[in-house]
Amino acid sequence: MSAWTIPNLLRAYRTGALSPRDVCMEIVEESRRLRKWNIWTQPPSMAMIEPHLEQLKREETDSKPLWGVPFAIKDNIDVADMLTTAACPTFAYTAAQHAGVVELLIANGAIPIGKTNLDQFATGLVGMRSPYGETHNAWRSDLISGGSSSGSAVAVAMGLVPFALGTDTAGSGRVPAALNGVVGYKPPIGAWSTAGVVPACKSLDCVSVFTRSLHDAQLIDHLLRNQPLSFAHIGPTEVLVPREPLDWFGPYASDFQRAWERSIDAVAAQGFVVREIELAPFHEATAMLYDGPWVAERWASLGDFVTCHADDIWPVTKEILRSGQNALASDAFRAIHRLEELRRWVRDVVTEHTVLLMPTVGGTYSRDAVREDPIAKNRDLGRYTHHCNLLDLAAIAVPAGQVKDGIPFGVTLFVPAERFEVLVFAASSMLSINMTDDCCYGRGDKVLVAVCGQHMRGLALNHQLLDLRAKYRETVNTVPHYRLYALATEPVRPGLVRHETDGVAIEIELWEMSLASLGALTASVRYPLAIGSIELADGRQVPGFTCVSGQIPGAHDISYCGGFRRWLELRGAESTKKNMEL
């Protein structure tokens, strides 16, 4: 699946290289292959898309800024004649009309492609609290995707759509952006319509957008505010960063810390003045969201439904929502008054020529770890996001490199609501990101390639991948339809052959490289090896090293080992045993 930005896709339409129907059919097919990722509550289907394709036939290609551009919609946002479930099937209703933001995007030529998975009722930052399944991370399926806009972020990161709508009340449009290596833009409260959006915390809710480039985020913002696109903004000269040590967590805690330190160094290298500020006021605002009266606002929106359908609510979600039942009005007013003081403090600190920079998240977790402690680990993820809407800030989360094992790292820029138009320009200039190019870290023209032999980590030919600047991503298994043979080569190399009837699952490694590097690798492959399509256990199909079928002279079957590395270990052990016997 090609990972398009909006300008590149429109260019392909204009040249006749692609049609909207081609793209939509590919999305439908790719979504089927990725079904185990649990991206969708209502997957793309040509039946749903067809009326929009028919409408495009009556319009000129350049007549609208999003002509033929497919987009995904978080399933707490209405699309006419589709179910809105908020990840709760009992709550589901058929929307009579489009949400305000969806209506505007369709009017500008975009094609709604499907409804995406979310933490139920947009309550969560993990992407796991849904009866439609746990959304897998786009980079490593054992890690959390982040939430609540999990499916929307992963759909963009996996290249299914150029952009997707989410919502953001406490970080739901930024946490999954960081964990999947895409851009997540959250406008100021009220800048985009929330008509037709299932409320989470109505006074704080925002619709957000995930994109692959800063340009696309800015384009969507201007279209949803009905403003002409302009890049002429005066950016900040000073960057504010936290003074006190930050909290890092999870298996990559130290790697995230180092990535944050590199980000600050990169900002300073661009000539910005970096100044430290205290975080205590931000932490105080953060505590108000779930330890203060705002959780009562969630109960006000959903309490009657939760009371009547308690068995249909995700247990953790129900626990959080019910915590708002007994809030006192006096507590609410005290919090409102204190919050106004904090907002004034922020505007005194984040002034006209400054921008606030924080890590989007302080780490990540495996899905297994979150299941063991769902509330505390969810709270960890919101440490640097929860304050945003309470303090009336606009924010953009952007990729800022990667950490160990290729896991994305991201940062977020914040400004007061009235200065939101500087965010994209600031992100571009501070982090040296070209606004019009794909800034989804490591994606762009990259492809995953499967290796099953001497090219694996630490083995004899691994240097060839490293020379091509390939990066290891993960170790996975094929579907159980392959046999593995040891070939009579020096060094010994395996041959992976497809066997539908008596195959087994074979362990392989996935490496990411540019398309140009894949071409160079392919040119070096010699008979009986070849580069072909390999089917993975999770349903993906990726290019990788295969072997011609039929009898292979001098080869012997090593499929019983389940992988080449295991066979090498067993062969080494046998050799050692023989030497000892001698």
Automatic annotation (TrEMBL):
This is Allophanate hydrolase. InterPro entries: AH_C, Allophanate_hydrolase, Amidase, Amidase_dom, AS_sf. One of its GO terms (molecular function) is hydrolase activity. Transmembrane segments: none annotated. Signal peptide: none annotated. The lineage of its organism: Bacteria, Bacillati, Bacillota, Bacilli, Bacillales. The keyword Hydrolase applies. It holds the Pfam family AH_C. Keywords: Hydrolase. It comes from Alicyclobacillus sacchari. Residues 448-568 form the Allophanate hydrolase C-terminal domain. Residues 56-222, 253-414 form the Amidase domain. The keyword Hydrolase applies.
